[in-house]
Amino acid sequence: MSGSCAEKIPAPINESNNAETIQRIARAILDYLSSHSITTAASIGSFVKGRRAYKVKALRNLQESGEVLRVGSGRKCDPFRYRLNSRIKARPNFVEEVIL
Questions:
Q1: I need a surface site. Which of 24, 36, 63, 66 has the fewest CB within 10 A?
Q2: Which residues pair with 75 in a beta bridge?
Q3: Nearest to 63 by CA among 35, 20, 92, 33
């Protein structure tokens, strides 16, 4: 069918771009948690910019790596709260150097 109703073509998925975005969001989450002792996912989500799905994936990756701990039962009166794992040293800022 032709006419004024043009079909929307989805943008191609770029795996490397998604991974870079998730890493950027993970760094932003770590920065936010470094200045807050414990907070909810909603607070993190309102501070960190990006798609919700990427924020969820980044937070899950940080939990799996042990950098972020989740406390609470996730129920109405006891929501999940997140904090930095004090046993893991803060990530250093990685700088690439060329050694000759």
A1: 66
A2: 78
A3: 33
- pLDDT recorded at residue 33: 94
Ordered mean pLDDT values, 10 residues apiece, the chain (100 residues): 56 69 95 92 93 94 95 92 81 48
Q: Where are the domains of the chain?
A: 15-84
CA distance linking residue 29 with residue 45, whole number of Å: 9
Determine if the pTM surpasses 0.90. Answer: no
Per-residue buried b or exposed e for 35-63, using 16+ beta carbons within 10 Å of the residue's own CB: eeeeeebeebeebbeeeeebbebbbebbe
Residues 6+ apart with CB under 8 A from 83: 33, 37, 38, 39, 68, 69, 71
3-state secondary structure of 58: helix
15-84 fold: Arc Repressor Mutant, subunit A (1.10.10)
